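Sample A.
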Amino acid sequence: MTKQLITKSLFNHLLYLFIALISFETVANNNNNNNNNRIAITVDGNSAPDFAHKWPTGDPDDIGATPATLAIMAKLKLQNKLVHYSYNNFIDAPAGPAKDNQMKISAEGSIKRWNFDSTRFFDVTTALIKAKKQLAEEINKSTANDPLYIILGGLAEFLYLTVEEVVKNGNIDALSYVHVISHSGFNENHLRRKNHRTWNETLALSENRMKYIKIHDQNDCNNKNNLWCSKQDYSPYAWMKKHPDESVRWMYSRIVASGLADISDCGMLYYLLVNDKNGNPEKFQEFIGNSVL
């Protein structure tokens, strides 16, 4: 075999290997194996100032992200797959009056407009025990054929308390069929009280049974056309203002009510259900189309 043929053969072999590696990486990064499985979502916030912490209020992004997240499920007609939604999950934070509870307004408005089961929604500041018990019950049901996907849109302490409940009741094996999706190192590691626990401590409590899916941060706030945050620039969401669907116009009002053009937490569910970790308002507009329902 001539030197030229050897060189060409080696080049073709390396090219094939490169393409194979790229294809494997794409599958590994994009295939989350979700198949219309049960979904639980827990997000942060607090309905009244928490003066025991250096930041009395949480990031208001979930005020707008909650309707956006639930609109994604409703558009895909997956309302019955949402088995748990907890909000205001800052443990030990005080409860405030309902009329000023922006997360409650966003959650209840979404339930009403898109036909979700209200019994699966919990304000953690007023219903911690019920929320923890109900999510633990959903975890207990988990099997290889019926896994549970949890969107971690808030700090880890609430999930830690829930896993603690599961372990205490002797159902630790069910945690092997729980997948946790996160995009935020802050949510995984920040503690609002010294005795709270991180995501790594939660995973350790499950004896490393839970499956962890980390996608890149869904914020790129200095690039309004990329991902889901554009600070105070609402122009990427301007299409919502005069949308023919009242529920989309209402969703826009909730984004404005948050004080930020940031619905970044919805990017985790968009990834899970649409298999795209690089969503943005333009893609969201195409996804929603003429109506949510």
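Sample B.
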Amino acid sequence: MSLGYRTGQARNGREALDAIEQELPLAVLLDLRKPVMSGWGLLDALEKMPSLQRVPFIVISAYGFEWEAELVGATGYIGKPVELDAVEQVLRRSAIPAGHPEGPYATGGQQVTVGATAAAQWREYFLREQVRGSWTRMGLRAGDRVFQDPNVNVVMPNGGWAVFNDLDAGWTDGRLTLPIGWNCQKALFGSADHLPGERATAAQGFRHPVGPSVNGAWAQPRGSRLVPSVFLQVQRWLAHPYRTGKDVPQSVPWVLAAFAVSGDIL
């Protein structure tokens, strides 16, 4: 990698910690899943070093979750496979102090979502499909053309559309529901959404997982108005820009779990 920086490498968190203690870096690119000392262990150790409070730490991950970087207190995020222009952009912005014209900024905008749902049921078996389209325009800084939508975890074109489809088929008895679901997401990018000379990146690709889920509700306790329920979903990514089979296998599941209590408190 050649961006005009002098770089060093470490095979694990322990080697990285030793190198950082010897020479203070301008920035650290961090892979969380490393042997001996993981990225999480390295971050815990570095938090105890006052000299590193202003050094940006940028997470590199194949899982495609930008909130993962925020969760561990990192400054920035780069998805795998790593693009050189993405590294340059994140390094440039992560090293910029707050309040600088090219630093991080808050903004707002408009979003319009349209959709349709079709459902059919025969005895305990059901089929449901929901199709949605979402158009979003944010007040981005001059030169910025795309943004990360945290609600759907998709890189969106500013002033453009993304389409989503959810298909479920399964069995239910009213309290217990056992469906198999297929979901897909696709952001619709045009040539105007790319900078001059910039090529389309993997982050803009089509993605879709498939897998079973369990949704169940307990019987309402006697004398209580609350009905507790539980939801568990496990999906395998059939296609995902970060699960290419190189850094992370596509068989790594997407797991969701939730517990809810519904009803009137009073």
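B remarks: Residues 122-263 form one domain. Residues 84-94 form the longest helix (11 residues).
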